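Researcher: Re-running this chain for the archive, since the previous output was lost when a drive failed. Same request as before.
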Amino acid sequence: NLSASSSTLAYDREFLRTVPGLLMVTEIVLGLLVWTLIAGTEYFLYPAFGWVMFVAVFYWVLTVFFLIIYMTMTYTRIPQVPWTMVGLCFNGSAFVLYLIAAIVDASSVTKDLDSHNYNSWAATSFFAFVVTSCYAGNTYFSLISWRSRTLQ
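Model: Regenerated structure tokens:
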């Protein structure tokens, strides 16, 4: 018996009004700013900026992916995945690696390297720390969500 079923994808408009949703949008916007500012320079000549670029692009892509999952409520269709644990691991790793990248970025910015890239690299350092704080906030909310799931 084959029955045709129409599969509609849900859309959660309220997610963007929550603090984790706002933090995620901020991570996407400022993360994009971090890697575009670096991409506009000769970052490939300096391994430290290559690391920052890798972290920024990697977590930007994954954050966009998770935003789509949360906005379309795909997590409700795949209950086998422990989404609270996945969110906690994702946000925790993003926080740690972005913090390392921001510190590496800030410590590598000098006028001696390449003066015409100085302003871009200094700006990426600032925005990398802002994105790091956003991931720290989302890690906190993910931890609260995970703890409430494990207590049930």
